[in-house]
Amino acid sequence: MITLQNLQKQFSGKILFKDVSLQIGVRDRIGLIGPNGSGKTTLFRIILGEEPIDDGEILIAKGVRFGYLPQEVIPLKGDTVLGEVLKGAENIISLEDKMKILEEEFSSIQDPKEQEKLAKEYGKLQERYAILGGYGLEAEAKQILRGLGFKERDFSRRTEELSGGWLMRVALGKILLQSPDLLLLDEPTNYLDLSSLIWLEEFLINYPGAMIIISHDRVFLNHLVNRIAEIENEQLHLYSGNYDFYMKEKA
Ligand SMILES: Nc1ncnc2c1ncn2[C@@H]1O[C@H](COP(=O)(O)OP(=O)(O)O)[C@@H](O)[C@H]1O
Ligand SMILES: [Mg+2]
Fold first, then answer.
1. Which CATH number fits domain 2-85+138-250: 3.20.20.140, 3.40.50.300, 3.40.50.10240, 1.10.10.10?
2. Which of 17, 87, 197, 213 could be cross-linked to 192 through a Cys-Cys bond (beta carbons 3.0 to 4.6 Å apart)?
3. Cβ of 88 below 6 Å from ligand 1
4. What is the DSSP string of the chain?
């Protein structure tokens, strides 16, 4: 799905890594580890196209959708907790808007022929909406929010009122609802309590796509990943197993 070839990256003369190569398949679960400042976050930003490379090549299959949870909390405003998470499913929401417009139009026209035309168009949108999972969307969003520790009464709270940890959970919920092809999670467990952590682990174990997880939580990585990529001495070293496997190989 994605191939990184001989990537090289430096910041004002300081080399982060040279010759980083990595293949990411559609079901890969990769734990990205390395000391602080080794370039883990930068590698995510390179994959996302937010950070240029000095050398090498990045090949991304057409249409691949990313879901990125940044390490730093981004402030959110202008919506409720549930509204913000639902916003993630843009394609479904925009279909919903179109359907609403057609409904209004339908009630304002008299001509049966025009009505029939509109009804046909509406039917097509409805079908597409159902295929994309539109009817179950809100229920799914609520289920994700509950899993991440929100209570029913929090769903209608404004995101401006939330603390950093809860903002991060909203951002995470939004990404999970989108169900992208590749999840890039930068320290996702930092703000989670135990029950949310366990829920997230279960959710990710059953996740149908690929993921790269940056985490210091060895237990979390052990449960989730089947490959470890370690940035060390300006290189990316690959291990085909979970964190325990990596430790054994290193020993
Ligand atoms: N935009 C930037 N400009 C200059 N230096 C940067 C920039 N982003 C990151 N760095 C530096 O690159 C190094 C790696 O950063 P980062 O990718 O955040 O590491 P990690 O996520 O592994 O802790 C750090 O020394 C950091 O200060
Ligand atoms: Mg980082």
1. 3.40.50.300
2. 197
3. no
4. -EEEEEEEEEETTEEEEEEEEEEE-TT-EEEEE--TTSSHHHHHHHHTTSS--SEEEEEE-TT--EEEE-SSPPP--SSBHHHHHHHT-HHHHHHHHHHHHHHHHHHH---HHHHHHHHHHHHHHHHHHHHTTGGGHHHHHHHHHHHTT--GGGTTSBGGG--HHHHHHHHHHHHHHH--SEEEEESTTTT--HHHHHHHHHHHHT-SSEEEEE-S-HHHHHHH-SEEEEEETTEEEEESS-HHHHHHHH-
